[in-house]
Predict the 3D structure of the following.
Amino acid sequence: MVHRQAEDPRWLTAEQRLAWLGMVRVLTRLPAVLDAQLERDAGLSFFEYHVLSMLSEVPGHTLRLSRLAQLTSSSLSRLSNVVKRLEGRGLLRREPDPGDGRASLAVLTDAGTAAVELAAPGHVTAVRELVVDPLDPAQLTELHAAHERILGRLDPASSTRPEWLET
């Protein structure tokens, strides 16, 4: 949510600007590096892996597409394109939602489960090397707290928080 103000903008201080530009660098570099690792090791993009891993975490490996879009911070149209691609590869399938015929479910297939299981070790290794290991436990706690505060502004209803994720 962006607020427009009639008065002059509150420009960032030098320290705030450094923090912001550092965050921008992480936000732009990290996805590219994770994409490259997953493509090389598992033939999946980071977003494809994220979709499959979200499905792998829920009972029955099934989610309504609208919920999966929320969890992956994606538009339904972007998600639909990726789901179609993953469906073509046999990694998931779409089914009508028995509780609401207008909605569709994404269901992880056995091949999709195998793909996640194949990709996960390399992905976790990359996440550890790039994000977790450079930080000491206190810094990691601070990073988590900072993310939660920022998400409180970006996602006040916590719609992107998986139900199974511990706070």
